[in-house]
Amino acid sequence: MPEPASIDLIKKLVAFDTTSRESNLALIAFVQEILSGHGIDSTLVHNEESTKANLYATLGDPEVPGIMLSGHTDVVPVDGQSWDTDPFVVTEKDGKLYGRGTADMKSFIALVLAFLPDFLKSGLKTPIHLAFSYDEEVGCIGVRRLIEKLNGMPIKPAMCIVGEPTSMQVVTGHKGKRSFTAQVQGLEAHSALAPLGVNAVEYAAELITYLKGMARRFEAEGPYDDLYEVTHSTAHTGLIQGGVQLNIVPRSCSFEFEFRYLGIEDPDALEREIRDYVTQTLEPRMHAVGPDTGFTINCYNDMPGLEMDPGEDVVVFVKALAGRNDHAKVAFGTEAGLFQSRADIPTVVCGPGNIAQAHGPNEFITLEQIAKGEDFMRRLVSEVSKG
Question: Cβ distance 135 to 74 under 8 Å?
């Protein structure tokens, strides 16, 4: 069974409504109070409006590279979901703790806080760094400001463990994602004179069709990575809107699309292929009818993938902490890719809970998973005491 301190902290953290649209400052203040009670200073990195903050703190010598434990404080909405219990009050039933964020990922943060006394009593030959972020669920927004702070520090962590729910399996990779908006500017005309206009919907459809062709190519030709459930990169169009009525050639159309790509793929090349098709094939035909027509494509979310060699020190180290020899890759994105690519910190993902229980109604974590997370922390305490 888990320790009472862990359960108590999970309950307290879940009680803060840190849905991404809300502020996380009350939760951050609560964490700061716990840290200051142990004599630990912390640094806040706010958003532009100062309504949210990342927290960074170091246990031990800040002049020595150490191990960073990272988690996000925000959760997804409960709107429209049918919960059997209050999502912001932890309910224990049948060996499970129900509540928003129990799996993703306040239980990991609670375990880190519960083991603060153990870390401090261990002597900490290797420092422990804490990194708790905001707005992960809406595009890993907050951690980017924290990474700017880390990159300006003379000493950065030697490695990072992101405690997303992986059932305590060591995750060495996840796909990257680039999301785009495309705005098509056409030329209106009466539908009886359609060739005199530029149909924005139809030109949007041509690019969407090209994207689908790329998706089919990925599936047929690879590259592949068998550690993923979907073993290849993907292209996907999710939203489209255009036109006014049937007898008017549409002047405008907008749609959104994304790539989810393997770590061995070059996302710049994927984006360049799309832009080249637009500028070299579609727009010349559009300009021949209307010079002010064309495409505007903007990337609004760029989340790097994670790709760690299984032989890397952080992978070997975290496998020992987790008490297992296997590793995996996951479909969902995390902040780990940003730490690896933007801060040059070797990173793996490993935490209690199962992603299958996240984001839906009646989210839960099992007591067994919490206990396994505690075992992980105990091993970490032992390791940092050795140096």
Answer: yes
**Domain span including residue 246:** 176-303
CA dihedral 306, 311, 317, 323 (to 10 degrees): 100
pLDDT 10s digits, 113-142: 999 999 999 999 999 999 999 999 999 999
Q: Pick the catalytic residue: 135, 136, 164, 225?
A: 136
Same domain, 279 and 311: no
Distance CA 157, CA 176 (A): 23
Query: How would you classify the pairing of strands 306-307 and 170-174?
Result: antiparallel
Contact 119, 381 (CB under 8 A): yes
Half-sphere exposure of residue 89, counting CA atoms within 13 Å on the CB side? 4
The CATH number linked to 244 is 3.30.70.360
For residue 183, what are its two tokens? 């705005």
- Is 135 labeled as catalytic in the residue annotation? no
Instruction: Based on the residue annotation, tell me whether 74 is a catalytic residue of this protein.
Output: yes
Q: Are residues 161 and 189 in the same domain?
A: no
**Predicted model pTM:** 0.91
Instruction: Note the pLDDT tens digit of each residue in 21-72.
Output: 999 999 999 999 999 999 999 999 999 999 999 999 999 999 999 999 999 9
Q: Which of 134, 161, 68, 173 is nearest to 351 (CA)?
A: 161
Give the active site residue among 74, 104, 135, 258: 74
